[in-house]
Specification:
By secondary structure, the chain is mainly beta. The chain has 2 domains: 138 residues, Beta Barrel (Elongation Factor Tu (Ef-tu), domain 3); 141 residues, Sandwich (Jelly Rolls). Helix content is 4%, strand content 46%. It contains 2 helices and 24 strands. Strand 16 and strand 17 form a beta hairpin. The longest helix has 9 residues.
Length: 291
Amino acid sequence: MTRFVWEGVDGSVWDFADGPVRLTDDGIEGFGELEAEELTSNSSMSDGNRFQGVRWPEREMTLGLAINAGLPRNQWQACDRAFWNSVSATEYGTMHVFDVFNDVRHIAARFRSDNRQAHKIDPSFMGYSRVLVDFVADDPWFRGPTVLYEVDPPPADEDFFGPTGYGPPFFISSGTTVDATTLFNPGDLDAWPIWNQLGPSASFSFTVAGHTLAGEIAVPDGGRLELDTRPNRKTARLYAADGSYEDVFRLLDTFDFGGRIPKRATSPVDIVTVGTGTTLVSFEPLYKRGF
């Protein structure tokens, strides 16, 4: 059975399958495919339209809910107030959708309307109320669990002396080179990776499908360099151990943020670093449907 769990703006969690606020037979809408807005052009010189592409609007979702389901009648007022405190028109909560295999997708959403909730009988007398609640997701895509790949640091430096009389002692510097590693994106849309290079590290080069991010940026032990390639972000930040950060975008030698992982496909990745810090690459798969 599909389950809907609302994580409110106040941190409260509401399981609409097994809790004091439950789904009713009034409907579940807006969790499937979106209707695209078609972009076309036309001319008096030709019939019909010329298709230019599509734009995806915000996602509108509606759930029919019963408030104070299964609880004593005198608890309705407290339950009703607690639920409405969990939604806001200006703040985001999170709607989690569990499918029949208990896999979960989530989406950030705001409250939009209670559809002018009307009561035939005073709900405080009945001990429960029914309402159609509209939510809106300004970013319309559902997200799956974060996919994380980790490249471990190389072994510690070892002195190398060689045969006696063949030159001074030297050591092999720490470095990692991973060629032709692949990232798999299970989502319905292309995904944009987030890179994290942990310290200590002296330089890096990350390439996804031919698009490279590189630089000689020193990351101290306990620090972290984050490169976010998402189109609405595109940031390069060097974090200190205390959580403060410095914008280091200007220090990148190569800044091609176009490397994305195609939907339901793999993408080759090349990683080259100097240092003993771990390299992490992560992304959130995006889905067109809630389940």
